[in-house]
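User: Fold this; tokens only.

Assistant: Input:
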Amino acid sequence: GTTYLGLMELKILALLNLEKLNEVTLASREAINILDSLKIEYQYSSDKINLFEKTFPLFESTLEANYLNFKRTGNPEILNDVFFFIEKSKSVLLMEALKASKADQFGQVPDSLIEKERLLRFEITLMEKEFENNINGVTEIKNKIFDLKEKQAGLIKMISTNYPDYYSLRYDNSTVDYNIFSDSLGNDDSMISYFYGNKAIYALLVNSNTKNIIRIPIDSELETSIIKVYRMLSDPKSDIAVLGQESYNIYKCLLAPILKSHNHKKLVIITDGLLNYIPFSALNTNPEGLTYLAENHSISYVNSATLLTELQERQPKEHTILAFAPSFDGTANVTNINRGKLLPLPNNKKEVEQILTSFNGSSFKDAEATLQNFKSHLSSFGMVHLATHAIFDDTAPEYSYLAFSQNKSQDEDLLYVADLYNLKVDADLVTLSACESGLGDLKRGEGFMGLARGFFYSGAASIASTLWKINDASSATLMSGFYKNLSRGDAKDLALQRAQIEFLNTHRDNGLSHPYYWSGFVISGSTVPLATSYNWIWIIIGTIILLTGGFYYFIARKKRRA
């Protein structure tokens, strides 16, 4: 299979060089069918990632052929193919995880088998943690992990064979139809999907009445500029004027050509490659001054249009919030060497208290903000807010973690990415108000493999996360505004945009106007507004009561006069 796929890549490249552009599309669809059948046979995520890394040139050649064909013919149907091929290159592992969860739920498999597979996953995670920490003999642990994964693979194969509904749900390789997706967008909505290749970036614009594609050549200057802008954004001491000019150059390159004839206020962006590091809200759109993209557009992110469609199909929960503000003093004596370096967060308790003025819920602070309390209360709430420390492990990304307050037994209260694969977080919004919680190991087509992605694995509909080491005080202010806007019925992207603009306008004349302080938070996933908050429900009820009382008072008074 892999040999045949390699030959198909060579064929597609040859057809592209011969400018047989329509034949490229036909050959590419055949190659993708092979790819879909191959990935079912791979049990390990690392093997699937390697498979897609090797086949990435196939997608780039295909997009180049379709781009050239569209420019020559102007046939809008070609962009349907572009949409399909970009979707096929995106977030395969995450989609598989969500479809596996759907298969568990609707595949008519006995609960005992589902539980058996869940326990195997949990045991594998425990053994992998032990292997990571080198607690016992490495060879023995590796052998145990291998045996457990073989058992898991055999169990999944048996379930797939005996329960066809489960198989069709778990291994559904379809992507969302272009027309269905474009019709789902509002009149003011636009989606921009990026594909970051070796030679060029392709940007596809999709909205309810327009579609277009641009091609941006990749050179060392562009990539150097992207890296420079990220470093300046994440450094509050960087020169804001220089940053503004550099970010304008990126805006002019990546967005201006595709947005120039469209004034849509809501942008859904599917990033790729190095673009994952850039909060588009902080891009300067003014060549002669500073006007940030966030001042005119609400912005959200998603891994693919197919994923967004899946997330929007969720049934909303009651919108109460579970909030955590752990305490740290930098002196904890635990096995993880980084744990002792976690310094106090002076404003995280204030942040949590302010949030609970906008929504009903429960908070756990200081010593009560433990991982045990998090897990035991999680299922009862529709929103989760974690104002804590996040540590990204670039050598083993699945062991990046969120820190909770240490309990009395000296055990580590650390929630690892690997733990999230075995945790059910059925929340409409998870906010990771922690440093670099949106970062991770960057994989082609998959994006960041980190904490935010882990919460999508565990069932969250949307994630608010951060792209750098955020400021504790400014985060508290931003989050207070964000939740107030949510409680008024704003969509999640609009709620964040309004909070950012309010913060920016308040500090326009001082150093806090630097994008470092307000643009580090990003919203990913479904941006559907939360249900009417508790506060507004009671305001409406109170208004009805007052009006009703006033009416009866008016009638009674009229009768007395009569």
